[in-house]
Amino acid sequence: MTDLTKLGVAAIRSGVANGDFTAVEVATAFNANVAAAKVLNAFIVETPEKAIDAAKAVDADRAAGKLLGKMAGVPIGMKDLFATEGVQTTAASHILEGFLPTYESTVSANLWKAGAGMLGKLNLDQFAMGSSNETSYFGNVISPWRRNDGGNAALAPGGSSGGSSTAIAARLCPAATGTDTGGSIRQPAAFVGISGIKPTYGRCSRWGIVAFASSLDQAGPMARDVRDCAIMLEAMAGFDPKDSTSLDLPVPEWEAGLSGDLRGKKVGIPREYRLDGIDEDIAKMWDNGIAWLKDAGAEVVDISLPHTKYALPAYYIIAPAEASSNLARYDGVRYGLRDLPDGAGLQDMYAATRAAGFGAEVRRRIMIGTYVLSAGFYDAYYTQAQKVRALIARDFENAWAQCDLILAPTAPSAAFGLGEKTSDPLSMYLNDVFAVPASLAGLPAMSVPGGLDKQGLPLGLQIVGKALDEQGVLNAGLAIEERAGFTAEAEKWW
Amino acid sequence: MSVDKDTVNKIARLSRIAISDEEADKMVGELNGILAWVEQLGEVDVTGVEPMTAVIPNHLRLRDDVVTDGDVREKVLANAPAREGSFFGVPKVIE
C-alpha cells in the first residue's frame, strides 16, 4: 500500500470517499509519524485518540452512505492558539499551562464539522509573538530542513506558526491551521517550502482564538499545495455572530473556482520591495515568479507602494498596543497560572503572576504597548501609527487602479539558524518586512514555494490580492505552483 | 523621546508586571532601541488623514436584547486557580 502520509488533503479526501483506504488507516499512519518525530517539538499536546475517533465517524458515515464533508477523513494539526474543548490550550505560554477550555473555537468546530480530525495541538511562538518559534514556553520547534553545507545547524521553522509549518513539511500532518497577525502563516510556510493563505480580515471567525492584536489577527490554512489550502479555507471560513468583525458574506467555492489561467489579469510589482542589498537568490526567485505569471497570461506592471518602509514601525506600535490590552485578562484570578507570594495582596499577585507567566518577548511587547497608549504619548505613537496605517491601506487602494494582484517575496531571506537573531529583537522584527503591509491593510495574501536558494533552503513567493479576492490570490498561487515545479523535501533525519 | 529607568519601572507597574532592578536596566536599552526605530513614523506627512479604525468596511451589528447564554457556572469556574465554593478566590482586599 502507498504511504498515506505522502498524500495531501485532496488526495486523502477522494481516497477515503472512493474506498481506496479508510479514514482510520490515514489517521493511524499520521499518528505514527507524529509519535516518531518528537525531536522536532512540533506538538505541545498529541491527541491520537481524537484523530482516530473522528476517522471512525467518517468511515461509519461512508458505510451508511451519508454525504461526507469537505475535509472528511483528513487528520490535521491545530495551532495551540485555538481553544479546543477539554484539550489543553496554552498559546505556548506558561500562564495558560494546564488551561482546559470548556468551549470550542468557531474555526476548529467548523473543521470538525467538515470531517477533519485532530492529531494534536501545535507549538508556536508564545501568544503568536515571534518569527522563529523561539519564544515558546515549551521549547523551540526545529525545522526539518538543513542547509546543504553538510552541517547540522538547527534552523528556524518560521513563526509564529512554526509547529504548523514543521509538522506539514515533515509529513506529520497533511495540513494545519495557522494564524497571521503580521506574517505568521506566510513566513513559516515560505521557510519550509509549503503553501499558506491569510484570507481577508473577517473571513474566519476570531472567536475562541487566543487574542494577540485583534484588528490584525486572522486564521488561515497551511498545507502542501494551493488546492489543499482552498479546500481547507472553505471549511474554516464563514460568518460568525460571535465575532463582531466577522464578515456576513457567503463562503465562495474557492476550490471549484481554481484556475491557473491568468489571461486578463494584471500583476503589480512594487518597486519599494526591491530593497537595497536584497538577497540575490530572493531577487532571482522573484524574477522567476514574474516570468511564470506572464507565462500564465498575466500582464505585469510596475507599481509603487510609497509608504512600505513605514509598515513595520507602525505594526510594532499597533500590535503591541492591542496586545497590552488583550493580555490584561491574564490576572491569575479566573484561569491560568497564579503566583501568590507570601503575604502578597491583589496587586502584588497580578504583578508576580504576569512576571512568572509571560516570557521575555511577551513582557517586552506588553510594556511597549502600555507605553505607547499611556497618557501623553498616545497621540505621538498610537494615533500617528493608525494614520500611517490608513496611508498604507490607501497605497494598496491606489495600486488596484493599475493591477489586480501584487507579487513579492514572502520574506527577505531563507530560514535562519535558531539563536541567530534572538539577541536583537529589531533584527527579528525586520524579517516580517514584506508580510506586514498586507496585514495592516487586512488583505488576502498567500505564500507559495518559489524555489531553493544556494544553501538548498526553500524560498516563498507572496501574492497579495484585493479585499475578498481570495480566488484571485489562489489562482495566481496555482499558476506559480504549476510552473515552479517545486518538489523538494527535507531529507528525513529525525 | 527616550525612556529612563524610572519610566521603565512606571510602565512595568502600569502593565502589572513585576521586574527586578537588573531587568529594568536591560529593558531601558531594549525599549529605547525599539522606540528610536518606530520614531521614523514622525516623518510621515499625515495632514488630513484620519486614523484607521477598521481595515475592512463593516458595520457593527446589534442583536436583539435577549439572554443568549448563562447557567454555565461550573464551566466559568472550571479553570479557576483558587476556587472557593462558587466564587473566584482572591487574596484579602479589604482590611
Please give a structural write-up.
The complex is a heterodimer of chains A (494) and B (95). Chain A is α/β, with parallel strands linked by helices. Chain A has one domain: Amidase signature (AS) domain (Amidase signature (AS) enzymes, Alpha-Beta Complex). Helices cover 36% and strands 13% of the residues of chain A. Chain A is built from 15 helices and eleven strands. In chain A, the strands form two sheets. An eight-stranded mixed beta sheet of chain A has the order 4-6-5-10-11-9-7-8, sandwiched between helices. In chain A, β2, α4 and β3 form a beta-alpha-beta unit. In chain A, α8 packs across α15. Chain A starts with 8 loop residues before the first helix and ends in a 10-residue tail after the last helix. By secondary structure, chain B is mainly alpha-helical. Chain B has a domain of 38 residues. The longest helix of chain B is centred in the first third of the chain and has 18 residues. The mean pLDDT of chain B is 93. The chains are: A alpha/beta (494), B mainly alpha (95). The interface between A and B is large, with 70 and 52 residues.
Quick gist of this model?
The complex is a heterodimer of chains A (about 500) and B (about 100). Chain A is of the alpha/beta class and about 500 residues long.
Helix/strand class of chain B:
mainly alpha
- Apparent shape of chain A: globular
Distance between the termini of chain A: 23 Å
Number of strands of chain A: 11
The portion of residues assigned to helices of chain A is 25-40%
Alpha plus pi helix count of chain A: 15
Oligomer: heterodimer
Strand count, sense and barrel status of the largest sheet of chain B are:
2 strands, antiparallel
User: Which consecutive residue ranges of chain A, at least 5 long each, have pLDDT under 50?
Assistant: none
Q: Please give the number of β-strands of chain B.
A: 2
- CATH domain class of chain A: Alpha Beta
Task: State which percent range the strand residues of chain A make up.
Answer: 5-15%
Number of helices of chain B: 3
The spatial strand order of the largest sheet of chain B comes to 1-2
How would you spell out the order of helices and strands of chain B? HHHEE
Output mean pLDDT of chain A.
Answer: 97
Keywords (chain B): ATP-binding, Ligase, Nucleotide-binding, Protein biosynthesis, Transferase
Protein name (chain B): Aspartyl/glutamyl-tRNA(Asn/Gln) amidotransferase subunit C
GO molecular function, one term (chain B): asparaginyl-tRNA synthase (glutamine-hydrolyzing) activity
InterPro entries (chain B): Asp/Glu-ADT_sf_sub_c (IPR036113), GatC (IPR003837)
